[in-house]
Every structure is written in structure tokens, then in C-alpha cells.
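Can't attach files on this board, so I'm pasting raw text. These are the components:
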Amino acid sequence: MSTQLFSYQQLTAFTQKVFLAIGCPEEQAATATKALLSADIRGIDSHGVARLSGYVRLWEAKRVNAKPDIRIIHETPSTAVIDGDSGLGLVVAPYAMQVAIEKAKQVGTGWVSVQNSNHFGIAGYHAMMALQYDMIGMAMTNASPLVAPTFSIDKMLGTNPICVAAPAGKQPAFVADLATTTAANGKLEILQRKNQSTPSGWVQDAEGNPSHDPHELKKGGALLPLGGDKEHGSHKGYALGAVVDIFSALLSGANYAPWVPPFPAYVPMPAQQPGKGIGHFFGAMRVDAFRPAEEFKKSMDHWIEGFRAAKPMPGQEKVLVPGDPEREMEAERMKEGIPLLESVIKDLRSIGEKFGVELK
Amino acid sequence: MSTQLFSYQQLTAFTQKVFLAIGCPEEQAATATKALLSADIRGIDSHGVARLSGYVRLWEAKRVNAKPDIRIIHETPSTAVIDGDSGLGLVVAPYAMQVAIEKAKQVGTGWVSVQNSNHFGIAGYHAMMALQYDMIGMAMTNASPLVAPTFSIDKMLGTNPICVAAPAGKQPAFVADLATTTAANGKLEILQRKNQSTPSGWVQDAEGNPSHDPHELKKGGALLPLGGDKEHGSHKGYALGAVVDIFSALLSGANYAPWVPPFPAYVPMPAQQPGKGIGHFFGAMRVDAFRPAEEFKKSMDHWIEGFRAAKPMPGQEKVLVPGDPEREMEAERMKEGIPLLESVIKDLRSIGEKFGVELK
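---
Top answer:
C-alpha cells for the assembled complex are below.
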């Protein structure tokens, strides 16, 4: 698969101009760009600039409002519900996370559920906003229904990711960022390109049989919850995905379960709309609302060093701490550049032509 | 395997007398009994009365304080840290959960991290305390190090369960209660008794190789994080177990990672003690801190009914909602009685003899 390297700065300049071209206010275009490209630099290529055309198509379909009036519609000292006014999730989510952080400054923790939003990129970007304040950050979102719960043929949930980020001292922060499925859609796309089959427990076919076909989703099949099948704990992955849905959409009044609006603008909207847009959930906990931050961070260093010192199994070089692979990727890509597939570059150039913006 | 049925009332009377005999104050003996037996009635036999002798042995080893001075050592409007004073987790946890609930009444949510405690039974009992207040409840705990993280031979985490309970309207509550491993230790014990091998992804041997031996833990092997191996997403189960450890122990000052004190009193304590006792974490979120409770519960009903109506795969009768199996078991066992294995009955009778309490 041929790729070409682009610098973070090149992609930033291009993406920002595209967001401005669809009418985003300057500050929001900058925020959306930073949130979107955080996926590319962290190596989650499926959620980065490759999705820019998807966001543009949602705007063309009038499902994304480029000038949203994002507002708090209900609150208590430690909670808020935010109406995203159909804005880009890339803009709504950082706004909501900041509200959670401000609440945490006041009363120790802040918890924000969001309705009427769109896809927010990677959960990690938003959760990690809390780190600079010596807070633990959490972010989750529901998503297009692609996942069949244990024993089900019907697709009832999205890949519904969860991120938890916790600050450390000398060590880099702990960042767990995971879809609640065995594998996310992006992993299937990689296997499709390589013409390889999927491991067991990733997908099932339209009749609910185990499958190894990475193209299964286009044939009516489904992604599987973390665990794969009942014998391997899929009821746990299903339960976690369900919790994300409840926190993100049932607490906020967004759409939930199979009624979550699909990301691809060409997929028809579900007939039923029990809520508004898609839902997110954010949390911020001030570490010193529990324990002096320096003590906590010293313990986190000790914890992290303990895991790094664990004995690796034969054939493995080392035991990783959640966040390690993405951080290493970020260091590499900020230095060497971000590799984009030819198909992605072509897609970006065609957006560029539409808006008179050059990818250079 | 021969079993004998006991009524909930019989086991309650016996267990309560044993807790009184080791010196628990009357109210605490009642609380501990209710928390412990909630496992038996919900079908989680490994965490119920079968563990009573284990708790007694911890008391004999002076690792459990029967008359703890449980107290808040730090707090903000939405958070608290509690020192369990080496009390039974079965008593410390309900105390801490009640603090979380009171905080939620005041400021919308309450979050409590606990140090210096012992094993608390099932997470579900504590999280479900929030339901009667129209709150979402959360409970988690760290535990004896039996789990090898992805790529590791060393056992660095416990089965670290998470429970999230959310109220519904006409439908019964949603209760997701799960260990962050593919299978918990209790499942291995069942296979041991049946002389059956474990499915893939449950355990590995002392060298880190995949194993199907349910006795593997006694031979230096380890339980595996939910997912089993990297290809099947075990780095996600590992990350979730790590989050439980951080919330429960790093925020509170309890022991963490491989330094968590083991449940069996005969297993020597780890050489290093970076904190105090084991750690728990509890959360309570008032539903109406986000949205009118009636609206939320109506949506929960719709959500639950949607999942129950999902098409089951061939060979499956229906799609379950988290909490269904345990609730069905509870209805059955409250009516028919609780089956105890001969070995468990023998164990209980020998405790009874020690304290002059009869199991009748």
C-alpha cells in the first residue's frame, strides 16, 4: 500500500482551511483540527484526517451545524447536560470537557453528558485535556450501531469507546483509550487492504455465525463486543458498551442503541429518533479532591515502573503501560511526518478542490 | 457434585451469628451478612457464604478488625477518601457507598475511594444501593494479584470487578457486574470440580504459554485479562483492570498492583506494602442531576425493551440485558432455596463448631 508523508503542520493548515470553508468560526476550526489530527499523530489513522471528507459530507447533508450555539441546558454543582446544537463533535466535546474541568475545580469532580452532537474523533484527546490540571479525565461516546450484543443478530450498539487518562509524575501519563469491541472498524479496514482474514471473535455474519471475513459488515454482519462470544466474556464487552450508551445518551437525551445516527452521510437515518443527535459523556476528577497530587503522582510513577519491570512472556520484548504505543507513535510522527494512504490523499485533494484549498 | 438446599433465612441466621461471634457489632454483623449472601442469592456462589471461613481466617490472622473505626480522612463536596480501619469490606463498602449517595444528594454526584479495607463480596450489592434513590451506582475494587497483563508472565492485577447499576421504570434495573478478566476464579473452580478443561483465553501457564488447565493458578499460572490475548483485545481488559486499581488504590492510598494483600490468610503478605489494605471505589450519580428522573427511566424502559426484542442468533432463545441472569436466579433461590456443595456445608459446620453456632 503506497503512502506519502505529510508534516503535522501541513495537515493542520489544510484541515483548518477546510473547516473555515464550511463556515466554522476561526477558534472552532482550530479546535476541531487539533482534535481530529490528534488521532493521526497518535496512530489511530481511522479516526483522523481520513475522516475529514465524512465530516464535510455530514455538513453537506445538513446534519452538522458549522456555527453551533453550544449551551448548558441543565446543571448542578458537579454535573451538566449540554446541547451541542448539531455541532461538530470535535468542537462540542472539548467545550463539554472544559465544563467538566471547571466543575471539578469547584467541587472536586465534574460530569457532563451531551446530546445533539456528532462524532468527536478519538476519546483520548478529550480525556487528556484534564491532565494539565492534575485531574483524571474520562471521555466516552456512543456511535453508529455496528455491534451485535451477545446472542444477538441485530446490531444494537456502536463501538462505544472509553478513555481514562491519569497524570503521573516523572513517568508519562496513563492513558487507556479503548473501543468496547474486540476490534474497532479501523482494524478491519487494515485487514481488507492486506487481503487477510480476521481472527476469531472479531465479527459475525448476517445470520450470527462466527466469521473471518473483514468485509462482513458490508454483508449485513456485525462487530462483536470485547470477548467475542459468551464463552470468552462477550457479555462483559456488551455490558461495557451498554454503560457507555446509558451515560452518553440516556442521561443527556441523545439517540441511543440502534437509533444512533450513522456516521456515513449516505446511510439513511434510523426511522425512529428517540433523542437528539449522538451522545457523549465526560468526567474530570481533581486528584487532590482525594489525596495530595504529589503523593498520587509519586504512586503512579511507582505503579507504572512496576508494570514496566514485569517479566515479559517469551517472544515479547516488554510489558506495556496503557498509552505507551500511542505516545511512542506521536513522538515518531511529529518528527518523521504522518503517512497517508494514496486513497486518503486523493480524497483530501478532492475536498481541497471543492473549497479552493491546496494540500501542500 | 452433591448439594443441599438452605433457605436464605437459614443462612442469614447462621452467618450473622458467626460475625457476632468474631466480635462484630450487631448492626455491622447484619450488614456484612446481607452483603455476603447477596452473592449466593444472585448465583455468584464463589463470592458468598462459601467465603465465610476465609473471612474468619483473616480475622484469626488479625488482618480483619471486627470493630473498625471507619472514617472519612479527606473530602470535598463531591468526593471523599475513607479509611476502613482494616474492617470487613462487607461493612466498609456499604458505609462508603452511603457517603457517595449523601454527596450525590447535595451536589449531584458523589465519589468515594477507600483504603485499608478487605474484600467486599460482590460489587453489585454496593452499586445497587443507589437504585432506590433514583441514582446510578458504581462500585469497583482491586483484589489479590492473579492476573497477568498482556505480554506479561508476572501477575500484576486482581480480577478487579466493576459494577454499574442504573434504574429503569417498569423494567427491572440495568445491572452490569463484571470482572475485568475473561473469566473469574469461581468459573475455574466449577471446571475443576467437573474435571473439564478451560476454553482458550482464560489462563496461561507459569511460562506465559496458553493453557487449558483449570488448576493452572496453583502451578504458577495466571488468569488473563478480558480478551485473553493481544489479538483478541486483552490490552483492553488489562487497561480496564488497571483503571479499577488506580481509582480504588492510587486515589485512596491502598495497596495496588502486585502488592495487594491476598485473600487467603495462608498466603504470605507481599514483602512490599506501598499502601494500606485493599482499595475500593464507589460512585453515585443522581439521575435528575442530568435529566428528570421519570424521563430517564422511561428511556431506560425503551432501551431495555429494544434489547429484549433484538433477534437472537440460531440456537439462542433470547437476547439478555445485563442483570437478567442474576435477577432470575434471585427469584428462584428466594423461593426454592440456595444449593450449597457438601464441601461448603462441611466448612460452615466446622466454623459453627468453633463458635458454638449451629447451621440448621
